[in-house]
Amino acid sequence: MYEFIVSDLSSGQLSDDLQGVIREHAADVAGGHKPPPIVPPPIVDDPQNNGRFLADYLHWLMDQDRKSPPLKSIQGKIWEAGYRRGELKGEVFPDVPGAFVRWASQRREICIYSSGSVLAQKLLFANTHSGDLTKHIDAYFDTNVGPKREAGSYSRIAEDLKRAPNEILFLSDTVAELAAARHAGIAAILCSRPGNQPQSEAHEYAIVETFDGVFPT
User: Fold this and answer.
1) What is the pLDDT of residue 66?
2) pLDDT tens for residues 73-88?
3) Radius of gyration of the chain, Cα coordinates, nearest whole angstrom
């Protein structure tokens, strides 16, 4: 991340993403969250020094599990460079490619909603060990539509898809996200995968361990 930021700063102009990071840092300072300092103020005159301060703050955001749009955008661009060089491959569970083919054959719309940027989503699904899966995906949504734990985000997605909420099924490994979707009128299923964090109130939802049982025929 540090090298990527230094390269961006060295180009002579801060990107919109880095400007967003600076604004978010100022809000964190004003809110008393005590983030790592960005000192001196990030300017292009000293990209090595400023890049280090910015990278420290971005790593702090990641440690906070902050769903920061500029952070996610920067991560997506770093991954794009890695995919382009062939250094990265998208990892999906073995049942995912078959499920995508099955759902597409059933004429179901397949949409992704992730805290990762739309760019990152497209890169991951275009570069899996099972090949390019983007041909099966109809739409992508990230936190620009809203936080994943707020019902309004799911309402906006339904509006964007021009679908009634009760026509949509949302799968997630996080109960708080399922609760937000359900509050918006969307059906919700808990997907319990190896390595997932235990979820309180999981008993309130239908649970699947793979996509094999979701619209099987």
Assistant:
1) 87
2) 888 888 888 888 888 8
3) 19
CA–CA gap between residue 65 and residue 211 (Å, rounded): 27
Q: How far apart are CA 211 and CA 100, in angstroms?
A: 9
Phi (first) and psi of residue 93, to 5 degrees = -65, 150
Question: Please, which contacts does 14-21 make with residues 24 or more away whose CB atoms are closer than 8 Å?
Answer: 14/42, 14/44, 16/70, 17/70, 17/73, 17/74, 17/77, 18/42, 18/54, 18/70, 18/74, 19/70, 20/69, 20/70, 20/73, 21/54, 21/57, 21/58, 21/68, 21/70, 21/71, 21/74
Angstrom distance (rounded) from CA 143 to CA 20 = 14
How buried is residue 25: exposed, middle or buried, by Cβ count under 10 Å (0-12/13-18/19+)?
A: buried
CATH superfamily of the 95-213 domain? HAD superfamily/HAD-like (3.40.50.1000)
Domain map of the chain by residue range? 2-66, 95-213
Q: What is the pTM of this model?
A: 0.71
- Percentage of the chain surpassing pLDDT 90? 59
Give the DSSP per-residue string, 155-167: HHHHHHHT--GGG
Identity of the residue numbered 175: V
